[in-house]
Every structure is written in C-alpha cells, then in structure tokens.
Amino acid sequence: MRFTVLGPVRAWRADAELELGPPKQRALLALLLVRAGQPVALSEIVDVLWAQAPPSTAVNVVHRHVGSVRRLLEPGLPARTEGSRLVRSSGGYRLNTEPDTLDLLRFRQLSETARRTAAAGAPERAAGLFTQALALWRGPTATGVPADIQAHPVFSGVDRELLAVAKEAATTALDSEVPQRLPAVLQQFAAHHALDETLQAQLIRVLAATGRRAEALEVFAAARDGLAEQLGVAPGPELRAAHRRLLSRSAPAVPLAPAEPGHPGAPGPMAGPSHPAEPSHPAEPSRPTAPAAPAVRPAQLPPDLTAFSGRRAELADIHALLPEGAESGSPAPLVISAIDGMAGVGKTTLAVHWAHRIAHRFPDGQLYANLRGFDPAGSMMSPNEALRTFLHALGIPPNRVPADLDAKTALYRSLLAGRRTLVLLDNVVDSSHVRPLLPGSPGCLTIVTSRNQLHGLIASEGARPLTLGPLSAAESHEALARRLGADRVGAEPRAVATIVQLCGRLPLALAVVAARAATRPSFPLSSVAAELLASRGNLDAFAGADPHTDARTVFSWSYRALDPEAARLFRLLALHPGPDVSTAAAASVAGRPLRATRALLATLTGAHLLAEHAPGRYTCHDLLRAYAMELVQDHDTDETRRAARHRMFDHYLHTARTAATLLAPHRTEPLPLSPPRPDAAPEHLDGQDRAEAWLAAERTVLLSAVEHARDHQFPRHAWQLAVTLELFLDRRGHWQEQTAIQRTALGAARALSDRLGQAHTHRTLGFAEGRLGRYDEADGHLERALELFGKLGEGDGRARTLRAMAFLANARGRHQRALDHYGPALDHYRASAHLSGQASVLNEIGWTHILRGAYERALTHCRQAVELHRRIGDSAGEAAALDSVGYAYHHMGRYEHALTSYRRAVAIYREISDRYLEADTLTHQGDTRLAQGDLATALADWRLALEILQELNHPDARILGGKLRQYRQWPHPAPARGG
C-alpha cells in the first residue's frame, strides 16, 4: 500500500489506485493518515468530520466508515487481526504505516535528516534533503475532502509545518549551493501563501542567488500588489529589504547544485518512477491564515461625564460631518482631530460624549484606546500595543496575535471589514502614531483626539479637522453651576466671573476648582477667587499667548493646600510607571507606613489630585501628573528620587517573588535577590488565592516596571522581576507580553555583564518564543542559556533549560529528541539532590512516552513521579503526575482508573488554587467521560473547565468552547453526578 495526503488524498495497492468512497470516508482516511501511527480518539474523529453540529448518529457513522476503510485497505482480512493496518486503540483508531508508504512520514523523515545534516556542518547536502522533502508536496493537505473539514486545525497544522520547512530549506540553501529544483518548489509554495511576506522574501533571495533576478522582481511585484489588494497594506520590512538588495544587485549568484542520481537533490522514492503517476495541480488561491474571530461586540468607551455641559456648536459641527443616511446605512470613514494644542481643553470629554450619542449607529461595537501621546513619564502607548489590545477585544486570543506591526494591522483591518464599528483614539501624538490603527472598512467611524494638528491625516487620509478652543464664558458658568449648584453660583456672580477668567475657561481647571469648592460648602466663592488671584503665575506647560489660560494656578492652589506629607506623596507618585498604583505600592514609594499612606491618599482624592478608580487603586490625570513630575524634579534631590524608585522596585520584585513562590513553591527559580530597603514595604500575601489575585491585579504595572527599572538604572531589578513573572504569564497564556519583558530583561542583564541574568533570561525568552511557534529563535536562546549555565556551574539551570528544550521538541513531534534532553536533565537534578526537579522530569518523560504511544512505560515513570512528589510534599507536582497517570490510563482504555487519578488531581488543584491546571485536568476528565459514552457528564466537566479558562482570559478557552459547541447539541440524559 502507498498513500498520499500532502495534496490530494490517494491510496494505491500495488500499482492500482483505490476509490476512497464518499467525502466523509475520504476525510476519515485523511485524518488517520495525518495522525499515522498514533491513536485517534473517537471524539476527535467526530470533531473533525462534523465541525459544526454533529448528528446524534455520528458515532455510528464513524464506525461504519471505519469498517469501509478497513475493507478497502485489507480486503478479506477479519477485524482485529494481528498485524492489521487499521486497529482499535485507546478508545479510537490507529492506522499503521511506514515512511516509505506515506508521503507525510517520508517528508518528516527527510526534514529531520536534513536538520541533523545541517547541524553536522553539511549545508549543501541538507539543502538537497530539504528539497527532496518539499518535492513530495502536491497542494494543500487533504485536498479533495470537504472544505469545512479540510479547514480543521489537524490539516491546516500540517500546512503550517510544510510552510515552516520551506522557509528552513530556503535559509539552509542560501548558506550553500542552491539545489536545482528548490526555486521551482519554493515558487509552488509561494503561490499558495501569497500573503506570507517571509516566504516571498526568501523566494526573492533564492531566485536572485541563482541569477534569476527578473523572476525575483516579478515575485516582489506580485506580493506587493496582493498585499495592497487583499489587506490594504504595503510590504513589510523583510520584503522591502529583499527588494532593496535585489535592486542593488548585491545578492551574489550561487551556482545551482547538480541533481545527480543518489544526490539529495534528486527525486526521492515517493516522487520517483516507482510511484504511480499523478496529475499536476494548478495553483489554488491562497487560503487566509489569519485566525477567525468569534462574533465579539466590544464596548470600550469610557463613561460619559454626567456633568457634561456646553459645546453645543461643536457638537452640531461634528454631527453634521456624518454622511447623509448614516442613521440607517454605513457612514464613510471619518477622522476628527482636536488640533489647537491646548491641554485640558476637553477634547476627550467631547469625543466620549459624542461617541456615546452616536454609538447606536455602530451595532458592531466601540473600540477605545488612550495612546498617552503626551504622557509626562514617557509611557506612550505604541500602535503595536494598541493593536494588540484591540485584537484581544475583537476575540483574538493572546497566542494568535501576530508579532509584528504590519501583520497586526492587516489582521485588525480584516476583522473590521464589513463591520460597523466606532473607534476612538485618544491622546495621539502625530499622524504616524495613529495610521496603523485606522480601519479600512467604510462602515467604521474613527474619532481621533490630539494636542497637535494632524496635518498628515488631513492631507493623506481626508481627516475632517475640528478646532476645539476654551469654553465660552456662558459655558464655563454653566459648568460650574452643574457641579456646585445653580443657587451657589448665582449668589456670587462677580466671584464666578473671576474664577472663570483665572481658569482661562479651561474645562479641566474649572473641574478641579469646582471639586475643591464643593468640599468646602461653607466657604464663599469669593475666597476661592482670592486664593486663585494670590497664586497665579505657575505651570509653564499650560501657559499660552493669553495669560488667563494658565492652569498652573489651579493645580498649585490645590497642591499648596495639602499638608507636607500629602504633598510629598503627590510628587513622588509621579515616579511610578502607572497606569495605576495600589495603596501598598504607594506606601513603598513614599517610604511610609500603610495606614498613614492610606490617609494621605484619601487627602489627595478629596482634592481631586488623584482618582480612586477601583477599591484601593489610584490613577492621576496626565496633566496633573505632568505637574507632579515638574514638582518632584524641582523640589526633590536626585538621591530622594532614586531612593523612591529603589523602594518601588523592591516592592514589586519582592512581592512578586512571594506570589510566585506561593503559587509554585517547588518551581520558583532561585535568584540572588538583595534584601529590600528597610523603608520599602513589600506585601505579605497570605495564601495562593491572594497571590494569584495580586499578580492579576498588578500585571500591567509589573510589565511596565520591568522596562521602567531598566530605563532608570535598576537593571538587576528588571531582569529578576521578568524571570519571576515567567510562570504566571505562561500559565495565563500571555506569551507575547512574556517575550516583550524577557527581551527587556535580557538587555538589562547584558548591560550589567551579568552572566547569570543572561542565562536565566535567555532560557525564559527561548521558552516564550517556542510557545509562539518561533522555534528557530527559541532554539538559539535555549542553546545560549545552556552554554551560560554550564560555564557558571549551574546544574539546576541547565536542567531547567533542557526541560524547556524537551517541551518544545515534543511540541514539534520530535519525541525521541525530547527524551534525549530529559535524560541529562534528570542527571543534573540527581547530582544536586533536587528531588522536586527529579520528580518533574520523571513525569515529563512519562508524558513523552504517552505521546509516543508507549503507555506502560509512561505509567512506570509517572507513578514514580507521583510517589516522589508526595514524599517531598509537592502537591502541585503530585497533581500534575496524577493527571499524566490518568491520561495514560485513558489511552489504554482503562477509563475508571483514569477517572480515579483525575479526581485526585482536581481535588489537589482546588486545594492549592491552581485554576489553570484544574481546568486542564477537568478537560481530560471530560474526554474520558465521553469515551465511556457519558456525554452529559463530559459536557459538565468541559463547561466547568471553560468557566475557569474564560475567567483567566486564557487562549485555551477558544479551543474548549469550540468543542463544547460541537457536542452540546447531542441528545443525552442528565445522569447523577458523583464525586
């Protein structure tokens, strides 16, 4: 028998091609071929064959198709015959075949041999092997099965694997002679992946290297046109660089390697004369690779200001900009810019108010981002960060968000195409800051606020400008009346006129003065006016041509009313990276006791210099923060500022360390932390629930603190904090955030010439890159970490790195390589008597044997892990090993044994509050219930797991949600739930 699945699904007995039957039967064979040699659970078969709602007869249909496939492959052979090609296995089915009979297995065998050959220093031979592997490809995986089935991840995952090897082949070839057939093979792949800029760039380089520059230019032109037509974007940096090099004729011509018989570049056995002739297939249009987003309706607008007043003329003007028929139709794109540069003039307030008034016209939701273009601390939100936030809001999980800006923009615009969405982009610094965030859909409305006139958007994007000046005198009077009451304002018209004049009719200044006056209802407004007159002339940032528009008077008046301790705290909080600060962190910044700090914060919120936007969490308007930054620079010494930052970074590092240790006491990296300053006050977290909650609440601050520590000469805090956060971010699925802070940490460790810091950050960064599928980058970082730990004599560090390398090897299906890494990792742990590490590796070895189908061997290792974890009191490790035991039993068909292990694991996870792993085990438990035929209980387990994952905002929630949707339509009884 011979089979192909890298393209059309086909099968031959001797030289006769077989008729594979109806579409779902053909799809079943394709699934078994893609998973050749591995058991495919019945639940997975149903999942693949019925992507939407499986019928109640689905299991019977599968059994019928299995029988037909078995008779097709082995006519006349009774079922369950020894040595049968298609056998029952672990609650499902397994198709046994060999690399010389299945193109996918042959492809993987050749690719792995090519990698080993390249590593051995023979890139020419490796390039030939890669070419031979790629020559087996005949089109998208499982061509010929129904389109909705072919789109399933089990098949698209093979397409991604092929694409990755194509890129690997190009890279290898460019380091050596280019095999004769490689350009043609790459051209075939490029035709199917027209929007993959990396592949197009590599094809250009390969064609240029072989002297085919005219063809390379055609490739660039086609790629550029395709990106413009389909995504509305220009080529990215990599594609542009390949084009520039091509134009400069700097790419050296590399001779084609001869394709001699027996040479790696010659046709392999699956493509040679002995293989039945196959028709050529025309290039199909490229299938989109962007992850499909669920129907998500974001509603991100900030609350409308209840005391909003005035701005009637401006509201009428901007409302008139909406095109005719917008009430029932789709409005044309619109950009509104507040351009007169006056800070505090009410741009955001007006934009938010108008957005709320027209939000009903945009049924697909509202997106909002404060881009912090004028943040005094320099923490401007980049378009990259804003796009990541928007993609999350539109339903894209963290691990599916592209890494680079152009790819994010393309995906964002694709998701908004055809939608009617309102996008509010606040505090933009210039036109380039906002361009990547503009939707391309004519149904979307974009509102932009900025202190600068956005000439670029007006000229190139057709933005409609609006100049927003100070309030009129009447509007200012109305604003005060809305806040202080009409009677109080009406009783002192002269004082009110003075206040309006001294506030420069600036909305923010009026609001601050009104808040202060409201807290002193017995004081006449004339006293407020007198204090403003006595303290005018400060805050240069708000001084314009008209001296009456100087807002420093307002802020200084509020500030000077503070007692010295509150004033000191207000100044020092300007050093915090934001976006908000907790009571405990404020206490560390100030170097004061928690109780005293709480009282000071109450004073600041009462004066409207801070806002308590959530219980115990405080934020500050950017104008007030700018004022505080001026004050701390003018009134506090360099030593005072450095000491405050030192206390702050100590607070976050040591509290994060406590939280990480509580969550995983046996898995926290040993780091050489210096003790915190005596006047810092790291939090004393009491239990795992509190630790998890603290990390979740402070996540954004902690990410900012890593970069802030590096930028303010605290590099050791930067890398140690990043490494401390690794496990938490990994469990939550925040892998892009993980790579960002670990890169920052690596830079900080390098600046210190700290080899231990570099080793740790290379390891954490390598593992995070692997989580995102960037395996080349991952391998480089992990190999460097292994080298550094070795030079430092850090055996446990080498063990942890080897475990990361093994994990990523398993993720790529390289199970023997994973075992090769686990062996020395176990030796290192034994040498250091690290029992928890030994137990963890034993469990991971067992898991690898499960992936290989060696379930008895897996049980031996996993049981040893359970006993060792139990002996040392490592509850989390014990639960993980019990989950592995259950998983092995499940695949052996011993379902009650599996459920016993799962129940014990779930009980432990609940006891130690490990929510993510509880959900993971509940998912496995549901799979076993399904294998027993108990769908109702399986659904209950999956629902509970999904609730946890959704609560954690974990990317796995999308996958489990899809499984639930597929199975919950099945009719089922509601059995009593035990245990």
UniProtKB/TrEMBL annotation:
It comes from the Bacteria. InterPro entries: AfsR-DnrI-RedD_regulator, BTAD, NB-ARC, OmpR/PhoB-type_DNA-bd, P-loop_NTPase, Sig_transdc_resp-reg_C-effctor, TPR-like_helical_dom_sf, TPR_rpt. Residues 1-97 form the OmpR/PhoB-type domain. Residues 1-97 bind DNA. Transmembrane segments: none annotated. Residues 254-277, 286-303 have a biased composition (Low complexity). Keywords: DNA-binding, TPR repeat, Transcription, Transcription regulation, Two-component regulatory system. TPR repeats lie at residues 879-912. The keyword Repeat does not apply. Residues 254-304 are annotated as: Disordered. Pfam families: BTAD, NB-ARC, TPR_12. Belongs to the AfsR/DnrI/RedD regulatory family. This is BTAD domain-containing putative transcriptional regulator. It comes from Streptomyces luomodiensis.
